[in-house]
Amino acid sequence: MVLYRRTRSTRLLVVSLVMLSLMTITVDFRGGEEGPFAAAGRGALATLAPLQAAVSRVFRPVGDFFTGLVHVGSLKGENDALREEVERLRSENVEGVSIQRENEKLLALIGLRDQLGLEGVPAIVIGESVSNFEWTVTIDRGSSDGVEVDMPVVTGEGLVGHVVRVSGRAATVELIIDPESAVAGRLVGSGETGLVLGDTDLRDLTMDLVDDETEVNPDERVVTSGYQGGLYPPRIVIGSVSHVTGGSGGVSKVVTVRPAVDFSSLDIVLVVTNHRAIPGP
Questions:
Q1: Tell me: the pLDDT tens digits for 62-97?
Q2: pLDDT, position 253
Q3: How far apart are CA 73 and CA 79, in angstroms?
Q4: pLDDT recorded at residue 45
Q5: Cβ contact 176:223 at 8 Å
Q6: Domains of the chain from N-terminus onward
């Protein structure tokens, strides 16, 4: 009830102010230069000014509202244009970073190829199969490109795995983290060898059959041993030592190896074509 009375009083005040202003303007207009307000001069202006100011304060928000509506369309267009420009710049930045990473990977791959004297077919990972029984990726190169079963696969960071299935235009690569994978490895510091096995539970590798008296250092690099007729060429980085257990009472040490390759972001690889493993009996 109080709110209703205040609203009603405000409306009456506004109407009264408007009517008074209209009456004043009408009388002054009809009187012309001789009108009752002409002689008052500045005094009349001073009298009318508060009335005009009161009316202006009441109606200015309404006028501003309609004026703002005129500019809403242009402001929305400007905001949309700015938003599109931001998205374009963000997209260009992401694309630039992606290209830079690809260049870095390619340079690392070329460096590894030249260092170890490898020859091969570059390929792109186009699919992956991850399960409790198999960890593989599919590449876009196959028999028509010279790819064959048992060929090693590497990146600039190190060993990826080897080819297990081939079609005309694609091939399947078994990763070294696959539970069926076994790689003959060697500790760079001591030269001690062992068998590096895949372990999907740990996402790390396990190096078995390491002599219990062998000194194993943290972060020591592990590379392929490359024994005669083996599946992989020598000196390809497998990973680095992250943990050591066992090694007492004649029990061989078990070395946990952190892979050098990030298998979660595998994209560009090299299928090594100038190394042939000798088939087993």
A1: 455 555 555 555 666 666 666 776 677 666 665 665
A2: 86
A3: 10
A4: 45
A5: no
A6: 1-116 (no CATH), 120-281 (2.40.10.340)
Question: For residues 164 and 138, is the Cβ–Cβ distance under 8 A?
Answer: no
**Quick one: pLDDT at residue 63?**
54
Q: pLDDT tens digits for 181-209?
A: 999 999 999 999 999 999 766 578 999 98
